[in-house]
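worker-03 picked up job from queue 'complexes'. Input manifest follows; two sequence lines, order preserved.
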Amino acid sequence: QVQLVESGGGVVQPGTSLRLSCAASGFTFSSNGMHWVRQAPGKGLEWVALIWYDGSNKYYADSVKGRFTISRDNSKNTLYLQMNSLRAEDTAVYYCARLSDWWIDCWGQGTLVTVSS
Amino acid sequence: QTVVTQEPPFSVSPGGTVTLTCGLSSGSVSTSHYPSWYQQTPGQAPRTLIYNTNTRSSGVPDRFSGSILGNKAALTITGAQADDESDYYCVLYMGSGIWVFGGGTKLTVL
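worker-03 finished. Artifact:
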């Protein structure tokens, strides 16, 4: 079955960098766009970024534009989120999610990123 | 900046019907926003309920339905059950590769 498994979360200091990964299985990864969505503690879901199935187009929320980079390696069935210049407000559970046409049809379990000094 | 609006916390009686909505701070929601709905319980990942306005995701009970009501997207739960007590989020496609989630509605069944 379709499985998305995030990794790479942890506790980091403000201003530093972190790279998240999302390993996909159970479907043809190279056929689907992929999102990152985050959820700060006790808050709602926030869309972060989208990458097309072939990596040719990338889109970002204003809150992360210029600091975060979404990428993918279709040969490894893996999605990435490079997060630079991290801030306290980036503290959240980060979910990867599969794009199907114009909606999300499945989600990973999430990885927690804590930005704190 | 466009804001996607959802109701504050809501309650419904067991067996009752509730409609949650998803609107825009400016303008109307249409099928071109491809509204979709997600259910989330504490500590769990979201679960896709409804996509493309009114299509139920695989395994979702038919007591959940989606529609456009007036200028908003709507999620209706008919015959609410105790395990429907969750947070519900909508998301809209705003064009140019941008999606925006609503703030979510916490639904209590009591």
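worker-03 released lock.
The radius of gyration of chain A is 13 Å.
The CA atoms of residues 95 and 110 of chain A lie 4 Å apart.
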